[in-house]
Amino acid sequence: MNFRPWLILFVLMTTSLSGCFGEQQIDTGGVETPYDVYPEPWERTQMQYDDTDIYSRVSQNGSYAIDAVQSVYVPVPTITAADGGSGITGDAQVHLGLWLPVIDGCDWSGTNLTEECQIPVIAEVGPYYNDGDVDALTPADRLGKFLIENYVPHGYGVAQVSVFGTGESNHCMDLMGTDEQRGIDAAVTWLGTQAWSNGKVGMIGKSYDGSTPWQAATFGNPHLATIVPMSGLIGVHELMWRNGSMEARGMIMHNGVYG
């Protein structure tokens, strides 16, 4: 048996993998690196978080105070009797909580505001307000609280919007359906056409709330300036169906969690 080819292969493998065995030494030229002072992972869990260092905050503090939350019901006239539910009574509406900054000289109830009093809006739309989380008038633990505390002081408005059939929004829960899309579009239009709005609405969210921005984008709404969807659905069928039939969790999520 010829061992020469095997010997060559062994030499090549040990050479290429030499850095994979043992601890790799990095020449830092004598300069101390963060890796020299980091505590071990199991020690970090016992440490007090430092929120005083210059790197402890992700953004600079804004200069505006946060005004009291407003409760708003947005009518959705595109829902008709043919859609059932609140379409029969003609009063379909989506509910939202709205936070605006306190800016000197800006009366948000006014109808003729100057450019300095016209601001962009960030909306987080989903089914969880009062259904798995706080209501829409309370900063949500999922994302709303972060948005309100970080963006309103910088001169943004923030809206927490409940899709149909959840929170204080009426009509029927229509999971990713046409009715839900119409409700979201109505909320975007309302936020973009108020006297205090500069006409630009951004949407952000994760999971279900990361899918609602895509729903809004299907309308080509001129007020929808940007979307930041995170970990949204690739499709309702892919989410709820397996081997030609709906999973049991479909009924649980639709009628229990969302509805």
Description:
The chain is of the alpha/beta class. It has one domain (65-258): Rossmann fold (3-Layer(aba) Sandwich). Helices cover 27% and strands 20% of the residues. The chain contains nine helices and ten strands. The protein has helices at residues 4-16, 34-37, 41-44, 86-89, 144-151, 178-193, 212-217, 236-240, 248-258; strands spanning 65-66, 70-75, 93-99, 101-102, 119-126, 157-162, 197-206, 224-230, 241-242, 245-246. The strands form three sheets. It has a six-stranded mixed beta sheet with strand order 2-3-6-5-7-8, sandwiched between helices. A two-stranded antiparallel ribbon has the order 1-4. The chain has a two-stranded antiparallel sheet with strand order 9-10. Residues 18-23 have low confidence and may be disordered.
Can you tag this structure with a few keywords?
259 residues, alpha/beta, Rossmann fold, 6-stranded mixed beta sheet, two-stranded antiparallel sheet, 20% strand, globular
Write the SSE topology.
Layout: H1 4-16, H2 34-37, H3 41-44, E1 65-66, E2 70-75, H4 86-89, E3 93-99, E4 101-102, E5 119-126, H5 144-151, E6 157-162, H6 178-193, E7 197-206, H7 212-217, E8 224-230, H8 236-240, E9 241-242, E10 245-246, H9 248-258
Parallel strand pairs: 5-6, 5-7, 7-8
Antiparallel strand pairs: 1-4, 2-3, 3-6, 9-10
